[in-house]
Specification:
The longest helix is centred in the middle third of the chain and has 24 residues, at 112-135. The protein folds into two domains: 2-94 and 238-310, no CATH class; 112-221. Strand 1 (264-267) and strand 2 form a beta hairpin. The protein is mostly helical. The chain has helices spanning 2-15, 19-34, 49-57, 60-78, 81-93, 112-135, 142-156, 167-183, 188-202, 209-221, 227-237, 240-254, 283-291, 293-310, and strands spanning 264-267, 270-273. Helix 6 (112-135) packs across helix 10. It starts with a helix and ends with a helix.
């Protein structure tokens, strides 16, 4: 750890930056990058203009030394257990979890009948959740209840409606909605209870408090079956080691293609490459060109060390 601190302080000294400012800039970059789908250092260079300006103001030799010093400190940081734990906690917070599932193979294609069954299951699940939510409502005015009834009846009335569990459930629900309509003007509270019964019956549950309990249990049982798979996919996509490997390999592969001797010229008050083909190069290529050959090769050496340790 002492060597890491020495490297960090050495790099700051070369850049003529105080530690508080450097830490604030680093925290901003890390926080914002955690919210993005991939770890991309270069895409955030402009967010640390003070560091960038200080870096480019150095001589080529000093830039190389600063790259080695700060790169050594960064390497130790991102490979440390506390950083990995913090990273994984952030991935958890954003919905990625490791369930130990294999997500390599895509799910097998489903028949049309199976697809329709899944669609109906999903729609019935929404009806169960609707009943759960409606059960929590305080007494509602008659005009609001009338609107709810009209919408519900229109959804479940058709012969092949997917919003009812079965023909028997449809018949029972429509009968209960009819009862609710008859008592709406004289007793809105009783009508509201009848509407809840109808919602439960349409979902294939029993009326009354027992149906509400069934809705709660069924709602949990009908939770999205693909949720764990999606959480696992997000976890796999944001694995720190994998993301580091992809970014560092990109650096190692891009560096040899950079023409550090390329000439530039002013054109329309803008500095551009003499060779127009270089204007179409990637942002990575241009940033490495700006950094210079010495710092780039130092960064490549550090990247190769990290890649070796990630294996």
């Amino acid at each position: 750890m002492t060597s890491v601190l020495v490297a960090w302080q050495s790099g700051l000294a070369l850049l003529a930056l105080d530690e508080a400012a450097a830490k604030a800039g680093a925290q901003k970059v890390i926080t914002q990058r955690l919210g993005s789908p991939e770890l991309d250092f270069y895409a955030r260079v402009n967010e640390t203009r003070t560091v960038r300006a200080a870096f480019l103001a150095l001589s080529p030799e000093q830039r190389t030394a600063a790259t080695q010093a700060l790169g050594t400190a960064a390497k130790a940081l991102v490979l440390s257990a506390p950083f990995r734990a913090a990273w994984e906690a952030e991935v958890n917070r954003r919905g990625g979890f490791n369930h130990g599932l294999s997500t390599a193979a895509p799910p097998p294609p489903q028949s049309a009948e199976k697809v329709m069954d899944e669609v109906k299951k999903t729609m019935l699940g929404s009806r169960v959740k609707d009943a759960q939510q409606f059960a929590k409502n305080k007494p509602m005015p008659a005009n609001a209840l009338q609107i709810i009834m009209d919408v519900d009846v229109s959804m479940i009335s058709s012969k092949d409606s997917m919003m009812v569990a079965s023909p028997a459930a449809q018949k029972a629900a429509l009968a209960r909605y009819a009862e609710a309509k008859r008592m709406l003007a004289s007793d809105p509270v009783a009508a509201q209870k009848a509407i809840l019964d109808a919602k439960l019956l349409a979902a294939g549950l029993e009326a009354g408090s027992g149906g509400v309990e069934q809705a709660t249990a069924k709602g949990s049982a009908m939770a999205d079956p693909d949720a764990k798979r999606r959480q696992q996919e997000l976890w796999n996509k944001r694995l720190l080691a994998q993301m580091l490997r992809e970014q560092l390999q990109r650096l190692v592969q891009t560096a040899p293609t950079v023409d550090f001797a390329a000439g530039t010229q002013m054109k329309d008050k803008k500095l551009v490459f003499v060779n127009p083909a270089y204007e179409r190069k990637s942002l990575d290529w241009k940033l490495l060109y700006c950094a210079g050959k010495g710092p780039t090769m130092a960064a490549v050496a550090l990247a190769q060390q990290v890649l070796a340790e990630l294996k």
